Every structure is written in C-alpha cells, then in structure tokens.
Amino acid sequence: DSLPSIEEADLARLVDAFYARVRMDVELGPIFNDAIQDWPEHLEKLAAFWSSVMLSSGRYKGQPLPAHLKHQGRITPALFDRWLNLWKQTTEELMEPDAALALQAKAARIAESLQLALFFRLDR
Ligand code: HEM
Question: Which of 7, 22, 67, 104 has its CA 20 to 30 A from that of 111?
C-alpha cells in the first residue's frame, strides 16, 4: 500500500517515447507535426506537465484547454481513444505496472475533461 515510485527522469523518458510514437501515428501525427514547431520545447513542457500531475511539483504553469481549443476542428473523440491507447501501450512498456496504471488513470480523467470542453456544447 504505497504510491507508485515515479521519478522526473522516468517521466522525461516516457514523454519522449510517447511523442515519438504520436508523431509517427498516421492519424495523430499530422495534427501534432503541424501544430508544434519546437519539439524540444514541447517535450520539456509535457515533462513538466506530467511532473506537476504525478509528483505535484508545480513545474507546469500552462493551460491545456486553450491549447486544444485552438485545434478543435481537427480533434475528434476517436482521436482521444487513439491517444489513450498509445499512452496505455507506452506506459506499459516503459513504466512499472503500478506506475503505468496511475499514469493511465490520470490521462483518462484529463482526456475526459478536455473532451467535455471540446465536444459537449450547451450553446446549440
Ligand atoms: C498540447 C493535441 C490529448 C496534454 C497539445 C497540442 C496539440 C495537442 C496539437 C499543441 C497545441 C499548440 O500549442 O498548438 C492533442 C490531441 C489529443 C490530445 C490531438 C487527443 C486526441 C491530450 C491529453 C493530454 C494532453 C489527453 C493530457 C493528459 C497536453 C498539454 C499540452 C498539449 C499539457 C501543452 C499545453 C500548453 O501549451 O501549455 N495537444 N492533445 N493532450 N496537450 Fe494535447
């Protein structure tokens, strides 16, 4: 009965591996490759994001929702399933099982709230 052991270096490796796969994915790849010019900066930002989520480090100061709203026309619910499947595969391969499960659960909750904001419209 303890929290999964996750370190900054694990998260940096995970983020690098995940986005390498995202970029090669036939459906997700083009969206990210069109949107992101500076990949080292994006990877650093996403490592900080996961560090804030999993380790409460406070390293990420951004706002994920507006970043995704910008791409609303291209992002679909099916793409979220694809993203989460790739996250599941990558966390299973790179992390200890308990850490992988914790990372998957967090991603699923964040994906759910992003999808509510992106796809659940009250104004129509
Ligand atoms: C940023 C796409 C799901 C976390 C971005 C950007 C794109 C993108 C294109 C760059 C935005 C820009 O600056 O133009 C997607 C797609 C997703 C997805 C297509 C699924 C279909 C997720 C999920 C999470 C997440 C599930 C978290 C668990 C982030 C974060 C940023 C980001 C933290 C950086 C925001 C910032 O600039 O501070 N995403 N995303 N994304 N995404 Fe996603």
Answer: 7
Indicate if ligand 1 lies below 6 Å from the C-beta of 62: yes
The interface pTM score, or ipTM, of the predicted complex is 0.98
Would the CB of 18 count as within 6 Å of ligand 1? no
pLDDT in tens, 12-25: 999 999 999 999 99
**Ligand 1 closest atom vs CA 84:** 26
* 41-77: pLDDT as tens digits: 999 999 999 999 999 999 999 999 999 999 999 999 9
Cβ atoms < 10 Å from Cβ of 41: 10
> Which domains are delineated in the chain?
8-119 (1.10.490.10)
